[in-house]
Amino acid sequence: MRPPDFSALQFRDALGMFATGVTIVTALDAAGTPVGLTASSFNSVALTPPLVLWSVAHHTTTHAAFARGTRYAIHILAVEQRELAERFATRGVDRFAGVAWEPSADGVPILQGAAAVFECFNRSQYDEGDHTILVGQVERCRHLAGASPLLYHGGMFYTEHPLGSLAATAERPLHK
Questions:
Q1: pTM, two decimal places
Q2: Which residues contact 3 (CB under 8 A, 6 or more apart)?
Q3: Which domain of life is it from (predicted)?
Q4: What domains can be seen in the chain, in order of their start residue?
């Protein structure tokens, strides 16, 4: 194996060329206090059983709550939720102050207005590099029909499609 021939900044910039959706992951810490963070490291794993994954940096203040907890919720943000994404990415603020949410059946904070929500059991996790990869088994999910997702690319949020509205035939070509 050869060492990288690029800097950490070059690697980050190259990764930024992959457009992603934006999520907020929420849970309760050991004291029962709501915690959450903005994450773009979300992916589907399997339909049977229904599995998703995401990752959290070891240095985050919420790492222990997610790594030791049994349940969390992943919210795919709608385009209107950019300010919420920025708030949950900001250190040193009360991320839940003034935010509309309700507890799930398991007490996990569920944010209102998300394009989709996946309520997960913390099935497994793997420490790799400076992150923990969490695999969640989805116990409940829901989505808002017709919601537009908030996208992130090249270090920027995209709140409007640069080409305008999509044609009706292009909106969901694989799903009828």
A1: 0.89
A2: none
A3: Bacteria
A4: 20-171 (2.30.110.10)
Round to whole Å and give the CA distance between 40 and 69: 20
Closest residue by Cα to residue 36 from 81, 78, 82, 89 = 89
How do residues 12-46 score in pLDDT, each as one tens digit? Answer: 899 888 989 999 999 999 999 999 999 999 999 99
Using H for helix, E for strand and C for coil, what is the string for the chain? CCCCCCCHHHHHHHHCCCCEECEEEEEECCCCCEEEEEECCEEEEECCCCEEEEEEECCCCCHHHHHHCCEEEEEECEHHHHHHHHHHCCCCCCCCCCCCEEECCCCCEEECCCCEEEEEEEEEEEEECCEEEEEEEEEEEEECCCCCECEEECCEEECCCCCCCCCHHHHCCCCC
Residue with tokens 């080409």: 163
Tokens of residue 72, six digits: 């969390």
